[in-house]
Design brief:
The chain has 286 residues and is mainly alpha-helical. The chain contains 14 helices and no strands. The protein has helices spanning 15-43, 63-70, 73-104, 110-120, 125-137, 151-154, 161-172, 176-184, 189-197, 202-217, 221-226, 235-243, 250-270, 272-284. The two termini are 25 Å apart. The relative contact order is 0.13. It is found in: Cell membrane.
């Protein structure tokens, strides 16, 4: 039986084919992982030449990390964790309840709601900056200003159209017979949602968890609108201010960039299995 590669070509065999595959995989590894390794190496190299990077440093040092701590990089990192923790928890909560309502319930105007949710994904952040800043300065009904607080960075990311659409489409694929069977056994609305529908959505939760984490973690425009004091900066925003400081060396910036990259990588590794299952679940149906 002849195996085929992802490109539809027959898989070659023999020593030269193995050598070719090794060279190809090594080249792909260097293209995608090389810059990340160079970043990590530069962050822990005592003297960094901004024009030269190496994957194999002469010696490693924590000098850059100590200078970064003196520049309050860990405080900025903590702010980022607080924002992404609160924002992602609210975003997942809103997504699963909104997805359940749109996928499992019939009500007039459901299609219009989906179109509106989709429309929010079409607007760039620059267009939303002015109305968002006005809303955060005077929250409707409550008349409370969220400017100058981490809460102002959490509330706007509580609902994301992408996560809602992913949960809606995934919940539509769950057989209604399971829900009807649970109702015949006396299960109420919340029990059906919590014990029947939601456990089957773990792959989708992995998808929205990774994408939501990355979206919130990389936010730059929102902290720029909300923060009024450097103590409120998140790490991506703090990197901008550190770069504009002439007294900050390139090593401190590399440490900040490395700390900004590491949580996203760890989040993907932690949710990798659910993420891949969520992406491939639609391909194996039917």
């Amino acid at each position: 039986m002849r195996n085929e590669t992802a490109l539809g070509l027959a898989e070659a065999r023999g020593p030269w084919a193995r050598v070719l595959r090794f060279v190809l995989y090594a080249a792909l590894f260097m293209v995608f992982a090389g810059p990340l390794l160079a970043l990590m190496t530069g962050a822990f190299t005592p003297t960094v030449d901004p024009t030269q990077f190496t994957l194999w440093p002469d010696r490693l040092s924590l000098d850059n990390l100590e200078r970064a701590v003196d520049r309050n990089v860990l405080d900025y990192l903590l702010n980022s964790f607080l924002v992404v923790g609160g924002g992602l928890a609210l975003q997942v909560l809103v997504s699963v309840f909104a997805g359940y309502a749109l996928a499992r319930k019939r009500f007039r105007g459901a299609a219009v709601v989906l179109v509106l949710v989709l429309a929010t994904m079409m607007l760039p952040e620059e267009v939303l900056a002015v109305p968002l800043s006005v809303l955060l300065a005077d929250l409707p009904l409550l008349h409370v200003s969220l400017v100058g607080s981490l809460v102002g960075m959490i509330v706007p990311v509580a609902a994301w159209g992408f996560s809602i659409l992913v949960m809606t489409e995934f919940m539509k694929e769950i057989p209604k017979e399971l829900e009807e069977s649970a109702r015949l056994d006396g299960a109420g609305e919340f029990r059906v949602f919590w014990q029947v529908v939601l456990p089957l959505c773990r792959p989708a939760l992995g998808v929205i968890g990774i994408f939501g984490f990355t979206m919130i973690w990389d936010q730059y425009m929102l902290p720029l609108l909300v923060a009024t004091d450097p103590a409120q900066y998140t790490l991506p925003l703090a990197l901008r201010s550190l770069r504009s400081d002439d007294q900050v060396g390139i090593g401190v910036l590399l440490v900040g960039a490395f700390l900004a990259m590491l949580p996203s990588v760890l989040a993907f590794l932690a949710l990798q299995r659910s993420f891949i299952r969520g992406l491939t679940s639609g391909a194996v149906k039917g």
